[in-house]
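pinning this so it doesn't scroll away 📌
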Amino acid sequence: MQDPHWWRQAAVYQIYPRSFADSNGDGIGDLPGITSRIPYLKSLGVDAVWLSPFYPSALADGGYDVDDYRNVDPKLGTLEDFDEMIAALHAAGIKLIADIVPNHTSNRHVWFQEALASPKGSAARNRYIFRDGLGPNGDEPPSDWDSVFGGPAWERTEDGQWYMHIFAKEQPDLNWDNREVRDDFLTTLRFWSGRGVDGFRVDVAHALTKDMTEPLASKADLGAENENNNGKHPFWDRDEVHEVFAEWRQVFNEYTPPRTAVAEAWVHADRRARYASPEGLGQAFNFDLLKADWNYGQFRDIITKNLAEAKTSGASSTWVFSNHDVVRHATRYGLPVSGPADRESQDGSAWLMSGGTEPALDHILGERRARAVSQLMLALPGSAYLYQGEELGLHEVADIADEHRQDPTFFRNKGVDIGRDGCRVPLPWTAEGTSFGFGSGGAHLPQPEWFGFYAVDSQEADPASSLTFYRRALELRRQLQTGEDFEWVEEVSPEVLHFTRPNGWHCVTNFGSAPVALPSGEVLLSSSPLEDGMLPGDTTVWLI
């Protein structure tokens, strides 16, 4: 019998399908490419794959603009290819979590095309959020709300009405007060669950339900996306969204084992537990470590808070350092750290805007710290999310020419936001050859020459490589992981983070620069070599 709680402490590997492996040489990764690399995923030792959107899309937002929720983009394969991929994953003992994008469709979706061809007030338009404009001729948007991607959150149609889009104009927001919208997504959940999908990652889970009571509030009266904690913001984290997810939970529970889900919910910490409740999605991302400086105190506070929060909700926590939206953590931790005032260089945004030249990046330090925090994460109770390529120690690609960039945030905010393409560059599988083994053709984003050094085949036989380290860490994690108990151990050094797990498993991380004495016990794994039996700076060790 399958374990219904498999997700609580799973190691989940995120695949951005267009950049993972290309089977037909067109420069775009695809589902058969993923299937061909399942032996690699099995050897890595992950429990599940989170597959970023693979649906038909014009890629106005990297696949998060969905044309058809119950199909595969022809550039990536077919439904038959999907079935073959999931069967091969399951045969390898790997679950599949599919990305689902419920806040908005693409502007090419059949519903939105019908809405544009239908009159004001029609049933077709009621699936979305259409409004008349302000001013004598309706020439001004219905409100002064901003899009997350820059510019107004409203786009005018040819007949003069406006539709709402929190993100790109190619991503019109759905009207979740409409029963037809809710029922259609229940159909979609059953469609993929019936094909064997084990769970769902819910994109922008906190933005579905909206209060569009007129007059619409001014943006001056609105709080930031994750600052509001009363459920009254007109489009972020409204209480009614949990009515939607309660219905989803009923669908998930129709299957054996029940399907699981994890919410991408950028909400106030006080409100995250509702998304992770057993009556809702069951789990919610916490991105707190992803935003943390290289700082003992920050890490300890974040871990303590999130484990307490998970215990309250009955869920398990989630941990992540890299994904398709942020600068890779091997790069972030190689940039200067000088406290909150230097936050911009710490998250990598200033470094990206400079083309990767300012401030100076310490590649070796970044990789050393990335391994240390990844090992720490893998020792924590809860789900650990890994992003494709982090097991190779990959850095962010900063110097992509403007003509090769694809991310809409770059085009909508030129000079302000460089976009997220640098973490989405196709993976290097071989040190030599066309596109470093990604495929027989080129790659849809240019790969730098230094990628060859990080290629899979360059690391396979190297006992000191990042890939070898991740494989060993994931293997040990499976052997050591039991209950979700956790206990801090107080250390003499203020720079050392030390906790224990069941089975006498100790995890010790030295955030300082000077070596420190290790507790007694057998060392199982160290993220960097020990120095005369001492734990060096920027290093994590597991021992029993």
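📌 and the second one:
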Amino acid sequence: MKFALSTLSTAVMTVMLMGMSVATSANTNMDNVESQNDVPPVTVTQIVDADDERQTGAATAVQTDTTLSVGDNTAINGSASTMHSQGAEQQSRLATLIDPITHKAVDNSYPLEVSSFLSLEQAQNILLQVSPKLAANEAAIAASQYQTDALKTIDNPLVFARVSASAYHVEEDIDLSSLKNGIVNEINNSVDDVIPPIPPTTDLPNFGELVGERLPESYDFNRSGSTTGAGIGVVWPIYTAGRTTALTGASDARTQEAVADSLLDKNELYNTLIERYFKAQLAIIAAYLREDAYDTLQQTDHMAERLFEEGFISRVDRLEAQSALADAKSESVNANNDARLAMIALQRLLRTDYRIKPTTPLFVSSRPLPDVSYFQDLALANHPGLQKVAAKRAQAQQLHALSDTGYKPTVMLYGYGQVEKDPSWVAGISATWKLWGGLDKTASLASSNAQIRQADLSEIEVSDNLLLLVEKNWHDINNAQSRYQALQSNVDLAAEVLRLRQLGLQEGVNTTVDVVQAQTQSLKARTEQAQAANSYVQALAALMQSCGTPLAFNTYLNAADIQLPILYSE
């Protein structure tokens, strides 16, 4: 699978909406996450973005040349595969583009269109393509896999060729006087030992001097020339006692650890996306409620002004209405700013230079969750943390096997032949044992055994922590669900009280203070209920992450029977 890292340029850009409709129901099977269909673009203008609407932009993406696939327990289908195929088609247009946030040049990039109106599933699909962290993890996995592939051929025969060419020149004046004297003396001594004594009247020649006269005192040596040679050799480790298998196994286990780390980061990013996505949705609802309260208090202030002019209320009541209106306006401005900030946080995560408008509503399901043991079994079967521990244990086992090979020999075949008219060659087999020195084999084995034990104990600890985390998140969901349902009566009561207080103000029965207090209670009840819905969503996302199945969140989203209103829709 190829992943793309995309960023957004700061130039003038054109955006096409890639919205998808939000499904109101879905199959309750957690392993079946269905994607949604694309819809035509529409334009929606809302109060939150009234001050700064930037609807145009261009996106860039980095296509990493990685062919590794990272497993997950649920898959993103539909628009995800469409985006991946779109990236494949655009590989021929790869270029260097500028990241809009860091302003760094990103090589091997291609344009990527990102809508400003995004459902949660669309945002999840885009996150896979634009996240630098995920792209970096894929590069790390690829590097580890290539290292494993490189080690797999270490036992193959090594064939090499040698070619040499050289030129030489030697010039030297060699002193032969000492050699000459030695030869003369040696000859004279030998003659005296061999020839018997003769009469003194007989004169024999001096053989040493005769030979010495023919020997020079020195010799001038002067030689030059060139030589060439070529040969082919082979070295083949036919028996390494399992060292190669242990090395490749350890490298493969490191790759599995990198995959587990990538899954952990991906699940964390999914959770961060849900957190920012629905926090933005909550902030938008809060801004809408504050704006609605401000509109209501404007009507109350207008009525109070008329009643004051007609003498039905006092000046104090009139001033209280004006003060409440000013406070409502200030709170509305603050809520709008908070909503903008929440949308910017989502924008940064998806690496766009314009704000993202969420179209998937906050939701709550009135149906009870499955028993906590169901989710605990999911966590033990799917969580990447346990996969990482398993990879650590596999590494320790391979290191143990590698340490154990220190007691065994290495057998190699070798040969070398010269490429000449009358070639010479050599061939043979060798076996080597390490008798003493280097790493302590006993200590190395003890170390690997300790690492295996460490991995076994870590698995127990991680499993215990996961079970406790799943239990906590499961209870948090139930608490948020009951909280939301309990607040419904408060919302109904506050709405009815506000309606009666407004009618009472018109009849002169209630004061503006009564209306303001009723409005405050209504706003508080509706805001608290929206916060409870967000708590439910965040707890559900945390539960799915702790189970190692973050995309199963979409199944519960599509099956939810209670959805809060949204301001942005396609």
